Amino acid sequence: MARRRQIYEGxxxxxxxxxxxxxxxxxxxxxxxxxxxxxxxxxxxxGVINNRISEHIFTSLAAIGVPTHFIRRLxxxxxxxxxVEIIPVEVVVRNVAAGSLSKRLGIEEGTQLPRTIIEYxxxxxxxxxxxxxxxxxxxxxxxxxxxxxxxxxxxxRVNDFLSGMFAAIGIRLxxxxxEFGRIWxxxxxxxxxxDEISPDGCRLWDIKTNQKLDKDRxxxxxxxxxxxxxxxARRLGLLQPDxxxxxxxxxxxxxxxxx
Length: 259
Ligand code: UDP
Fold this sequence. Notes:
259 residues, alpha+beta, D-amino Acid Aminotransferase, Chain A, domain 1, seven-stranded antiparallel beta sheet, 7 helices, 30% helix, binds uridine-5'-diphosphate
């Protein structure tokens, strides 16, 4: 069989040419990076879990009318997606102060924000993804004002939906990152949700214990990283309770490892 043509390799995923024009295959790796790729590692089984979680979330979002690039999952690590022109803007939605917001503005991590905040970052590794304003996006032509209005509307809908979905399984959605892409139909284009939604790009805290169930466990060397991702998948009903993966007690894991 002919080797598939690789279109792009990122930090956590590889994109291959798809079976039909306008499609791609998105392959989920176990590789993890943080702090603009200064910290690197692998999280065993992460690719399999993120593929599954992202499938679940994108399918649910499509069902409430949010257009996405997702077509179908192909196997454990791959999904078929629509090819888009990626808009080089990372859209971060925040409900609770954490991460760079806490650091930059000196707001204690865990502080509930009085209103949801949307922030934009220019997607450029060499520049370290700098924060930008609406004006920069329009000025440099990264997206039109109409596209940005659609993006902000979709980001709020995604936040409302995901906040409820996670609350129902005892998880607080602190913040998350979205990426969008443009698809063309003749002379017309529209913007759809792209990339992935998984514990790699979300902060997810247990509602009762505030335990972190996301990539901060990797960023901050908290241990129990694999187990945290599995716990999110398990609570979403995507793993069987008697699955090998189902080691649930993150604290006992830390004790075992002496952390
Ligand atoms: N995020 C991401 N990719 C990035 C930067 C941020 O997925 O390149 C996510 C991150 O996981 C968190 C949210 O966006 O859920 C907000 O991240 P923040 O700005 O606090 O940056 P960080 O603390 O990760 O540097």
